[in-house]
Specification:
CATH architecture of the domain at 19-91: Orthogonal Bundle
Number of strands: 3
Distance between the termini: 43 Å
Low-confidence stretches: 1-6
Helix content: 55-70%
Strand order of the largest sheet: 1-3-2
Shape: elongated
Order of helices and strands: EHHEEHHH
CATH class of the domain at 19-91: Mainly Alpha
CATH topology of the domain at 19-91: Multidrug-efflux Transporter Regulator, Chain: A, Domain 2
Mean pLDDT: 86
Structural class: mainly alpha
């Protein structure tokens, strides 16, 4: 996934909790109407809506928008292709789940060994 500092042409994402659509527009280099359109096309993009239907984006939304922008504008994906790519990236694979379980089991074993040493 594209991280906040990986794209040199875009500004660094400030450490705020919520961003307005105007701020996100500047941070990601896309116009507000494009952001509203992407909300319809990408199910992962769900900003918080408050009074008067005002949108407030969180940091993970900004990172996702930058990733979408990279797929569409820099890698040449279509909307459908970018959507499919994001959906495939979001699905954990069986090997990933197996690796996580194996790592957790190894950590539990190590912790048990440390506990035995301390007792």
């Amino acid at each position: 996934m594209l991280e906040a500092s990986n794209n040199n042409e875009l500004p660094v994402i400030p450490g705020k909790r919520y961003f307005t659509i105007g701020e996100v527009s500047e941070l990601c280099g896309v116009k507000p109407h494009v952001l509203r359109y992407w909300e319809q096309e990408f199910s992962q993009l769900k900003p918080v809506k408050r009074r008067g239907n005002r949108r407030y984006y969180q940091r993970h939304d900004v990172v996702l928008i930058r990733e979408i922008r990279g797929l569409l504008y820099e890698e040449g994906f279509t909307i459908g292709g970018a959507r499919q790519r994001l959906e495939n990236d979001a699905k954990p694979t069986l090997s990933t789940d197996t690796n996580k379980k194996q790592i957790i089991q190894e950590m539990l074993t190590e912790l048990a060994e440390i506990r035995a040493l301390l007792a």
